[in-house]
Amino acid sequence: MSNNTLGDLFTGKLLRLGVVRNEDREHYARWSNDAEYMRLLDDEPIHPKTPEMFNFPRSEDSWGGVGFGLRTLAEDKFIGFTGLWGVNWSSRSSWFAIGIGDRDYWGKGYGTEAVDLTVGYAFRELSLNRVQLFVFAYNLRAIRAYEKVGFVREATLRQSLLRDGKRYDTYLMGILYRDWESKRAAQHNAG
């Protein structure tokens, strides 16, 4: 399944990848104060943040990647972000991150579509060969979304995270261009 227009690169059935706007800082600040959301996203201790602590737009050069705001097609509502960071141009690889801060959009396919669109951008527009990520073992919803797109678990960092006195594993997951393309072709041929 090959889409050649930029619109197709950035737009799915539920959402589109867009720019993160300055007015989106309010959302980031609110989400950064949501303990459950932050514990799915980051291993750093949670602390309150204000909108002024988020500076947009960021220069891609400042973090070695490209980021997108996630906006619903139906309402043009900002619900989260995705990003490719730490791009290694010589090995054609990058790290992936996603956060859907608006709980109304959890478990409804928005995350899976955002992962697929961003990975598609990495492979088709940036000509990367590999995208990888870390995910906490307890983040089952994210793991399912990654697996639907074609990510595979490549390693387990045993007991790498301490939360509330309990130890949790972290998984390294990755996807290669050839595997992503094969999965898309199979889905296209199936119907």
List the topology elements.
Layout: H1 6-10, E1 15-18, H2 25-32, H3 35-41, E2 66-72, E3 78-88, E4 93-100, H4 110-124, E5 130-136, H5 140-149, E6 152-163, E7 166-176, H6 177-190
Parallel strand pairs: 4-5
Antiparallel strand pairs: 1-2, 2-3, 3-4, 5-7, 6-7
* CATH topological fold name: Aminopeptidase
Global structural class: alpha+beta
Gap between N and C termini: 11 Å
> At CATH's second level, what is the architecture?
3-Layer(aba) Sandwich
How many structurally independent domains? 1
Give average pLDDT, whole number: 88
What is the alpha-carbon Rg in Å?
16 Å
Query: Can you give the helix content as a percent range?
Result: 25-40%
Order of secondary-structure elements: HEHHEEEHEHEEH
- Read across the widest sheet, the strand sequence of neighbours is 1-2-3-4-5-7-6
Number of helices: 6
Share in β-strands: 25-35%
User: Under the CATH scheme, which class?
Assistant: Alpha Beta
Fourth-tier CATH superfamily name: Gcn5-related N-acetyltransferase (GNAT)
The 3D shape can be described as: globular
Low-confidence stretches: 1-5
Number of strands: 7
